[in-house]
Amino acid sequence: MSGHSHDHDDPDYSVLPSDPALRVKSLETLLVNKGLVDPAALDAFIDSFQNDIGPKNGARVVAKAWCDAAYRERLLADATSAIAELGFSGIQGEHMAAVENTDDVHNMVVCTLCSCYPWPVLGIPPTWYKSFEYRSRAVVDPRGVLAEFGVELPEGTSVQVWDSTAEIRYLVIPKRPEDTESLSESQLAELVTRDSMIGTGVISPPGDSNDD
Amino acid sequence: MNGIHDMGGMHGFGRVDAERDEPVFHEEWEAKCFALNFAMGGWRKWSIDASRHAIERLDPATYVGSSYYKRWLEKLVNLSLENGLITEQELRSGKPDAGSKKEVPPFDAAAIRSLLKKGRPSDREVNQPPRFRIGDTVRTVTDSPVGHTRLPRYARGLEGKIVLHHGAHAFPDSNAHGHGEAPQHLYGVRFSARTLWGKQGNLKDGVTLDLWESYLEPRE
Fold this sequence. Notes:
The structure holds two protein chains of two kinds. Chain A has helices spanning 20-33, 39-52, 55-67, 69-77, 79-85, 119-122, 127-130, 132-140, 142-148, 185-191, 194-198; strands spanning 95-100, 105-110, 158-163, 168-173. By secondary structure, chain A is of the alpha/beta class. Chain A has a domain at 54-198: Nitrile hydratase alpha /Thiocyanate hydrolase gamma (Nitrile Hydratase, Chain A). The two termini of chain A are 41 Å apart. Chain B has helices spanning 28-41, 48-56, 60-65, 68-82, 88-93, 109-118, 172-175, 193-197, and strands at residues 123-124, 137-140, 159-169, 184-192, 206-212, 216-218. At the A-B interface, helix 1, helix 2, helix 7, helix 8 and helix 9 of A face helix 1, helix 2, helix 4, helix 5 and helix 6 of B.
């Protein structure tokens, strides 16, 4: 599958090896040798997503909103600033909005056109969020998708889907589970799952293994 | 463009398969591909809108047949060629063309960390007051532009209600094609599931999209 036999008249760009790992290696070598890319920048970028930027950040925001009524108000009014108070900001989170789940409304987030996602608070999206299955169905069959995630909502709850078609990024504030009054903010943060902040999960009370 | 990327509401893709305890990256090449896209973005030869459009422009069979990071790889190669950052000869040989000048990368480690932290806000000041207010009922246009647009097909020609005003933001339909940011007011517009999907929509449910002002008309 090298495709080299028709290199010379190939109008598309499928001239690199077909194995993506080899193609990326070959492209990286070329770009570094041309001085277009600094390998240290690549390492720093990857390291940030592996170690600093991820759903633990969003969990801290949610736990603080649960514990601090004034913070919750600020988060709902101006999420970008409220999230920056905790030190989280930047690319793909320049314009944040927080939407709160209640007994009446369950929010969930999708990007049907690509895979927009609030990186500073949730990191890189999971594969399912980027999948054609989720992108196609979250808007037309949100309750079916939620059922596949094991989420069952009370009869009267409205499902509101946010399709991220612009540069606004949505963070769902999940419902605080019952029987957590005695927990500290950091203990609460441990309970907050990534999926609950996308809206495809709900948070089980502590000790309940039936989590998402 | 009415492309394959515009997937909202399509049937046939099946169940959502969520992997448990998924790693940040499955393969090293995926991490590298992702990082290369951002490092090359530092040349400022293409906007985020042009970058999204470059993925949409992949032929539909390639789009559907490629993983997320493979699409990003194809996009990066195409944008780098189209913007003259690399040549087809270099892509074939894997080496800089003879006599080509060695550049200085726009991002070192500190600069890319700074970009991650600061981001690139898309909100802009405009002189025009917003045409719509929260609570207004609007109707989306039915246009089918061949270029980049962020009004999905499933929400065209329908009535919705303004629920948020986000200020003005760079307009992707212009910016993706190098025609300037041409900022417009941006609104969160809520559509009832019944409006979007007819009998298949749940009476209680809705979908909210962020839509630029020129996608919207006042209700007649």
